[in-house]
Amino acid sequence: MKNITILALLVAMLLPVKVMAMDEMAYTPQATTFSVVTLGNAKGVSLRLYNEGQGGAPVQVVAMKSKRMKDGNRRWTATVKGDQKGKFYTFDVQNRDGRYQGETPGIWAKAVGVNGRRAAVIDLRDTDPQGWAADVRPAIAARDLVLYEMHHRDFSIDPSSGMQYKGKYLALTEPRAIEHLKALGVNAVHILPSFDYASVDETRLGEPQYNWGYDPVNYNVPEGGYSTNPYRPDVRINEFKQMVQALHRAGIKVILDVVYNHTFNIDGSNFQLTMPDYFFRKNADGSYSNGSGCGNETASERPLMRQYMIESALYWVNEYHIDGFRFDLMGVHDIATMNAIRKALPDDVFIYGEGWSAGGCAIPNDKLGMKSNVAQMPGIAAFSDDMRDGLRGPWDGDDKAAFLGRVKGNEESIKFGLAGGVAHPQVDLKKVNYSDVNWALQPTQMIAYVSCHDDMCLVDRLKASIPGLTTDELIRLDLLAQTVVMTSQGVPFMLSGEEMLRTKRGVHNSYNSPDSINHLDWNNLKRYPQVMDYYSRLIALRKAHPAFHLGDAQQVREHLEFLPGGDCLVAFVLKNHAGGDKWNNIYVAFNANRDSRTITVPAGKYTVVCSGGMIDENGMGTIGGGNVTVPAQSALIIHD
Ligand code: CA
Predict the structure, then answer these.
(1) pTM of the complete model
(2) What separation in Å is there between the alpha carbon of 291 and the centre of ligand 1?
């Protein structure tokens, strides 16, 4: 057996290393081979080598040689002898008309200099932190996930964070950060775009600059602005890995927000500089389609774009041990591509996305990764704006309230979300705000949430939509909202900072707002300790009880029964030890009214675990059956 293993290893070593189709740099100390794929009609490609990541003159210019590929495109290669580690490089593609497109690091740069203008020759193994080989993705099933969406700068930039590496990847390696996340109980952080993006100038990091980062430049390199030194190509890679490693050690997954649907611009994009007009969709009249709302949309249905997305996601999983992906505007990508990505990634890598676009796309909606098509994408989840807006109010007006603001008629949308978007005999789709189909085949295909980085955060929305709200009411409604989210059979998701009653001072779209708007104020943990206390107990309650995350549509239909409610009153029972729960029947009720309401439960003796804005899994006393009071603007959870 041992001999066979050694033999297999030897054979594997002798066979050529499988280079990914789009690899553009293969380093050894003896020589580095560069390669780039262009359209078949390109006339030439110049490779330029530099000592610096920006500025300076090339130290070497090489005319690359090409071979026509089976698909009609050309692959250009050049091998440069000697140890090139530390050099930077660009490609410059000569069009069929003889014109040079302009320098680009290529579409597959894995390391870059400052601002991502030039790619870098490095040995990726030099970037691995100590113990990296032993790092593994934490084993957490989709049904057990509790997602926490965060921006590096929001999280740690304020002095009150107490963190050393403010606004950096390394903040997430600090005990203060790790302990907070563990205390809260979330088990996956979803980081806003952390690939190299354009809108923060990495040469001016000493000045306050802020952006969410939805403007991709280099898809396969970490953003330099979150590193301690964007000039040194290895630093951002190493620090990103340190972040992943620290979170994994704490049992927390890392999910990447990916924005393959558009690039920062067209003409200056690496796509366009490499293969003009291949990667972008056009309208019939030749103009660029703009389904992203950002001036362009990529063409996922084209073979090389599809392959690019698959290989890019795989690369993040293999090289950075990423646990999942949130696809920005998934509704711009075609269904077949999303399914191909699902198939290519390991099963435990969680995939979800925005099931909408930001404008009309150049291919029909029934081919796109829209929310209504999620049933055609098994193993891929979408955000439920149904539940979100049923709770807080519609997307088209910050001053409009819904369930939380005592607007009746939103009960069915809440029920839809509680059932995880799957078909349920007691959910009447005709009364659900947006969806007229049960788009989720499984509850793990629905993301349950009330707020995210987009739009107002929860506190601001409550204030904007409910006039005359007192602080006491604000907190009650905030806790009520998250209790709906955390007792949904979907996958719960929360915006970072909600646990400390975050406010963005009423700013609706804070994508480039200053730190004073976007930062978390960690002092709020002391100001409103009851919020963090409630959130952490709520999440712990969910995690401890399989009934709240059955993970299977049939189980949901079998064990989740809605009870008669009323205006702004929704109630349900998770019955008969749902999911093997140690509790027999769990009654849950949400009352958004300003006075108490009652629900009716069978005779018996019940332990109260949540009432009036307090939670204790071990119980806060017992009550009898019959008419049970649900206090104003709060959730009630009891069990027998
Ligand atoms: Ca950047």
Answers:
(1) 0.95
(2) 24
